[in-house]
Amino acid sequence: MLQLDIGDALDYVKQSFGGSPDVIVRILQLGSHPGVRMAVVHIDGLTDKGKINEFVAQSLLLAPSEEELRSMDNQGGVLEVVLKRTSTVGDAKACGDWNFIMHALLSGDIVILLDGSGEAIVADLRKFEGRAVAEPTTEVTVRGPKDSFIESIDANIALVRRRLKSVNLWLETFAIGRISKTDVAILYIHGVADNLLVQEVRNRLTDIKIEAIQGSGNIEELIRDQTFTPFPTVFNTERPDMAVANLLEGRVAVIVDGTPFILIAPTNFSQFFKTTEDYYQRFDFGFFMRIIRYFSFFVTLLLPSSYIALTTFHHEMIPTVLVINLLAQREGIPFPAFFEAMLMEAAFEIMREAGVRMPRAVGQAVSIVGAIVLGSAAVEAGVVTAMMVIIVSLTGIASFATPGIALSNAVRMIRFPMMLLASTFGFYGLMMGMIFLVAHMTSLKSFGVPYLYPFSPYDPWRQKDTIWRSPLKTARTRPDLTMKQGTARGDSERERHET
Amino acid sequence: MKRSARALSLLSISAVILAGCWDYRELNELSLAMAMGVDKTDAGGYRVAMQVVNPKEAAGRNVAGSGVPVVVFTGTGQTMFEAIRNVTLKGSRRINLQHLRDLVIGEELARGGVKELFDLLERDHESRLTTRVYIAKGSDSEQVLKILTPLDQIPANAILGKIKLSERVLGENYEVDLASAIHGIYRKNGGFAISGLKIMGDADIGENRSNLQQTDSLTKITVAGMALFHNGKLTGWLYGKDARGLSWTNNKLKSTVVNLECAGNPGNIAIETYHSKTKKKARIRNGKPMIEIDIRQTGKVGEADCPVDLTKSAEIRKLEKLWEKVTKLEVEKAIEKVQHMGSDALEFGETVQRDEPKLWKKIEDKWSMIFPEVQVVVRAETSILRTGMRTKPSMSSK
After folding, report:
1. Are residues B393 and B288 both part of a single domain?
2. ∠A88-A93-A98 over CA atoms, to 5°?
3. For testing the chain B interface, which of A307, A314, A324 should be mutated: the one with the most B CBs within 10 Å?
4. pTM exceeds 0.90 for this model
5. Is A333 an 8 Å CB contact of chain B?
6. CA dist B189 → B65, B76, B232, B348, B366 (Å)
7. Which of B238, B256, B287 is a domain's end point?
């Protein structure tokens, strides 16, 4: 129950907010003699101002009719009358719990306090000043939809719903964060997503104990299976079409208010090499692009280290003409190959980091200085070999070819220990590193699904959409995320719905 | 559990950090040996010469005329190993044999026997069994390595290019790598053939850069003949057509040119061999081994300098018959010569051993005596498939 006296109730609200001036209170009177005092409370900026004015003028300021006056005399009649009037604007309900009212207020609802009622009416007039739906910035496609998620959770859910007009697209919401109470929603297709999986996602979300959520990255870190691994075990995307494709494969999407990147679980290694573009272009070209991506993954991981191993341990493996060429280049280079590579790789990483963080206006300066100083001047000065510049730039470019940035970041880090191994043990060390890496990746799981599936455990019947991209006509079954029998694509969803 | 995991990771990290890099060698700490020459010293030991790359000059992007692309270091020792170590002393960097292309053996050493030579090259982990072997005809190997060559900056590459070209277009020489040389030389009573290299012109002039600064280099290296070995010792040389007969017999011929006489007319017809395959078989006749040689080859008319009507298949058949005859004669003559020299470079011994192992057991020890007397039958089967871009010879149009 709230305070019966409206003055007390308003004092309580003001006190709770510490007198913050963006808490707006309007006091109105319903009916004339004696009438009932009402207070409309909302927070500036979270609600639609125009709508409030319209709403107040149309539903609260009108003089009560005879019938209304009669019912106002009854016990709780005032509340009923106002609730009836408020319902014209939409979602409105009566509530007597301060906790709920405060949360509603903070979410952008308006609250109508009534004198002597002990309950308040909460009505939804939310409006958040947000960005319009724009082109994706990190996952660009040549041919395909050009919309991307934005910060507003409602808009994001709508973007998905627009693409999946099915009653089986189910949504559950959570408020996570002791202070922030961030809206987090999970989306899945009922009947397609495994119930156990949905339950697992639900459990992990409700288990989160944290003060505030600033972005979906926080959630990812809190729900993933293993913390100490460089590899991402939760997928993220800012493309609604990617989200829809994943939902149709039986995955669960986690949308976090305030972040245009939604999370998708479970995921596996091969997913980071896919883009929605693969399916918008011809299947053979999709296959070709994927080969390029896998190849560039290995280039990023192994090229600098292989070069070090070759030039410091395995001279016999370099073609003779090339080895003479390299010999000539290395004449007078002051650093050992490992140090030379480290120097250039570090320079590249610095440039890359600077390029991401700096204000856009100075961007050009960095690229010019980077290209000239580190490219040609370093070679001309005889500090590094031209071959090393080629190797480092090729590695750098290849690292951008992996569509999943999270995975490409992991590889960028791993290549440094690989270089160290190569410079101490040559290819023997490199092999040890690879064995360790593969063993580690095999041990990873994403919501119970082995990370390397379907490569390991190898499943010959699930290779239709990994490196090879089959034509859509042959894509009749869903990838089996729980490694039980895959469900058929096509009519199963409708059948389930009708029965 | 947790403690052992920690200990394990600590161990593996220290394995990386503490391991000495025993094989670690930066490229600029190496000198790359491209060719190696071995000669005999008067004291009975070896003198080894190494042709080492001078990378700045050899890499190809430099302005020509400033220095020499290769440097030759020599060293002597009682054993090959000692000699090679002594070579290293002459330069400032460790010599690396991994890219060794050519091994040149001086003729004097070859005549004295080369059996002791190959142990090191087989034992050492750096040397490769694909290195080609040559005999320096009439000179020390060291002199051969010192000659600078035009076009190919590195003489070792030039030598390899020459032998490959000779094998492919003329068939008078063929490549012999270390693996097959070792196989042939250690065979009991076996023979073997290795290509020869000859210096044309003054060897001293060839060492200078000036050798490259004229259109016709004063000193050149050419591939010349095949050296025949018996029991690891050089016994004689085969040249020209005889050497080609040897290539034919040993199934090493890839392509060559055979000139045929034009029936009743002056002028010649040149046949280009595309493809040639030789099969050797051993049989027993009267308790003695006999060798049958079958040559199959296809080719085309490369040049016709006499009026012959190539549109008629009968003419082509005639040419084929003639080609067969010429081939047969050439091979027979070469075999006769080799048998006379007493070197089983024709691999007859191996053929007998393979086809008639029981007989071989009996005659193995006396093979040196038997080989010169072995009866040989040569058969050739030829077919001319094409006549080139024109049919009628230009002569006949008159």
Report:
1. yes
2. 140
3. A324
4. no
5. yes
6. 51, 31, 9, 11, 8
7. B238
- Do B50 and B190 fall within a single domain? yes
Contact at 8 Å (CB) between A186 and A254? yes
- Binned at pLDDT 50, 70 and 90, residue A459 comes out as confident
Domain residue spans in chain A? 6-123, 153-278, 289-450
Q: Does A250 touch chain B (CB under 8 A)?
A: no
Pairing status of strand B220-230 against strand B233-238:
antiparallel
- CB–CB of B48/B37 below 8 Å? yes
What length is written for chain A? 499
Is the pLDDT at A491 greater than 80, yes or no? no
- Asked if B126 is an interface residue toward chain A (Cβ–Cβ < 8 A), one would say yes
Question: Which segments of chain B are extended strands (E)?
Answer: 30-40, 46-53, 70-77, 94-96, 102-106, 132-136, 191-200, 220-230, 233-238, 257-261, 268-285, 288-304, 375-386
- Inter-chain touch A328–B55, beta carbons under 8 Å: yes
- Cβ of B143: how many Cβ atoms within 10 Å? 23
Q: Which residue has the tokens 């076009």?
A: B151
Identify the closest residue of chain B to A320 by CA–CA distance: B99
Chain-wide mean pLDDT for chain A? Answer: 86
Residues B161 and B299 in one domain: no
- Residues B210, B94, single domain; the answer is yes
> Where is pLDDT greater, at A184 or A457?
A184
Q: Which domain holds residue B329?
A: 241-398
Average pLDDT over residues A278-306: 94
Residues B251 and B226 in one domain: no
Nearest Cα residue in chain A from B17: A424
* Parallel/antiparallel/unpaired status of strands A110-114 and A36-43: antiparallel
Q: Beta-carbon neighbour count of residue A278 at 10 Å?
A: 22
Mean pLDDT, rounded, for B207-227? 87
Question: What total number of domains does chain B contain?
Answer: 2
Q: Are residues B226 and B352 in the same domain?
A: no
Q: Are A150 and A258 in contact (CB under 8 A)?
A: no
Q: Three-class SS string for B63-97? A: CCCCCCCEEEEEEEECCHHHHHHHHHHHCCCEEEC
Q: Does residue A49 carry a pLDDT above 90?
A: no
From the list B19, B27, B30, which residue is nearest A424 (CB)? Answer: B19
- Supply the pLDDT for residue A486: 42
Same domain, B86 and B211: yes
Q: Under a CB-based contact definition with an 8 Å cutoff, are residues B48 and B87 in contact?
A: yes
Enter the tokens of residue A241. 């079409």
